[in-house]
Write the structure tokens for this entry.
Amino acid sequence: MNKTTRRKFLKNTALASVATAPVFAAEETKAKELFVHHVYFWLKNPSSEADKAKLLEGLDALTKVPQIKMAHIGLPASTNRSVIERSYAVSWLLFFDSLEQEEIYQTHPIHLKFVENYSHLWEKVIVYDSVGPKRG
């Protein structure tokens, strides 16, 4: 008969939970209809740090929209390969539970105020919306 110490039991339990965590996370993700909204901004005055700071201020305020599950404000990374686009000034990456939640965000007063107060700063905006593929 193998004698199990408390220490071995706790270690094995911890290892088992780490090993099964990805399986449970994958199942949880499948259950959700994750909607991703990624916006890229090109400023009218690309060399203006004041304009960039103002846009960042507006995006910070925009994170208060309750339908947003997660938000990330980004600046171009210093990576440099032929497939990398770095001409934008700021990116705005949002995650929603569904398309319906993103549509509520689009008409939310905070979002409408953001467009009204900050759209004069950008020259161009490109949006990439995506959903996960249906499997099985």
The mean pLDDT is 86. The longest helix spans residues 6-31.
